[in-house]
Amino acid sequence: MVEKNAWKLNGFVGVLFIGILLALSVYLFYSGSIPLAIILLIGAVALGSGITIIQPNQSVVVIFFGRYLGSIGESGLFLTIPFTVRKTVSLRVRNFESKKMKVNDVEGNPIEIAAVTVFKVVDSAKAVFDVDNYETFVKVQSETAIRHVATKYPYDNFDDDSLSLRGNAEEISNELQVELQERLRVAGVEVIEARLTHLAYSTEIASAMLQRQQAAAIISARKKIVEGAVGMAQMAIQQLEQDDVIELDEERRVNMVNNLMVAIVSDKSTQPVINTGSLY
Questions:
Q1: Could you give the CA distance from residue 37 to residue 202 in angstroms, rounded to a whole number?
Q2: Farthest CA pair distance, the chain
Q3: How far separated are the first and last CA of the chain, in Å rounded?
Q4: Do 132 and 153 contact (CB within 8 A), yes or no?
Q5: Is 95 helix (H, G, I), strand (E, B) or coil?
Q6: pLDDT per position as a tens digit, 90-108
Q7: Residue 155 neighbours by CB distance under 10 Å
Q8: Which of 78, 89, 175, 186 falls between 20 and 30 A from 106, CA-CA?
Q9: Element (H, E) at 45
């Protein structure tokens, strides 16, 4: 089903024409031409059934005995084909906020997730004829898309640079919007934005996952500290030997590296030990 424009006439011109027909029917009735007056009266009533008022950001779908004749997307007073069924579809931007859903992420951890979808109807014909109820369709497909995206990624990730629900909210929201648009295109709906509004571990595992999250963060931080410490120790020894400040044999080099690593990696501030003698 493709949206098309329905036939319409300026409503004020139509009202004027209907008024003329009514006036002529009254005149003919009192003049004795009763059959002609009745015909004009029926014509005026028929045209009156085609008068429709359309509010801003609304579209009216015109149906004539089960046949789609077109849509009127302009606001104002119009005269369209008489004896038609006219369904009003809102073209305004609307929000749908999903309820908090419990799903399992890609690692099988139960999480709570919710999102808000900003959408509007851009094709009134598809919204009326291709789905039973486009508002219900948006609700069901939004929740389905949220569940599908949530099961593709872990809640959090400290091991590598792969995407996670908590750490990459922007990328996850963009993917959710693309998937929603694919699902809702059949209903003539355009997805303007999709954003996560709630993300948390389920209550039954929240405490345990928080401990795991803290432990993973500590390990990840320690890994970065060790990598930096190794580089700093290596750079210090190379700089000392390059500038001929000191000449280190293998044992002294190992001892210096050990001291530098302890000083950099240690959680607490280190206390220097002044050696007045010799290592030997």
A1: 75
A2: 138
A3: 92
A4: no
A5: strand
A6: 999 999 999 999 998 888 8
A7: 22
A8: 186
A9: helix 34-48
Give the range among 24-33, 134-143, 146-155, 184-193 with minimum mean pLDDT.
Answer: 24-33
CATH superfamily name and code, 94-201: Band 7 domain (3.30.479.30)
Exposure b/e, 196-223, CB count within 10 A at least 16 = b? beebebeeeeeeebeeeeeeeeeeeeee
CA distance readout (Å), 183 to 117, 120, 137, 220: 13, 14, 9, 39
User: Chain-wide mean pLDDT for the chain?
Assistant: 83
Q: Which of 51, 55, 46, 42 is nearest to 79 (CA)?
A: 51
Tokens 């084909």, residue located: 81
35-47 in b/e burial notation, b at 16+ Cβ within 10 A?
Answer: eebeebbebbeeb
Q: How many CB atoms lie within 10 A of CB 191?
A: 23
Q: Give CA 195 to chain center in angstroms.
A: 5
Residue that the structure tokens 């399992």 belong to: 104
Per DSSP, the three-state class of 103 is: strand
The type of residue at 207 is S
Query: In the chain, where are the structural domains located?
Result: 9-89, 94-201, 214-265
What dihedral do alpha carbons 166, 167, 173, 179 form, nearest 10°? -90
Strands across the sheet containing 85-90:
67-72, 58-64, 85-90
Amino acid, res. 250: E
Q: What is the model's pTM?
A: 0.69
Burial of 109 (0-12, 13-18, 19+ CB in 10 A): middle
Residue with tokens 């949206």: 3
Residue 190, Cβ neighbours under 10 Å: how many?
14
User: 115 pairs with which residues across the strands?
Assistant: 196
Tokens matching residue 181: 């648009």
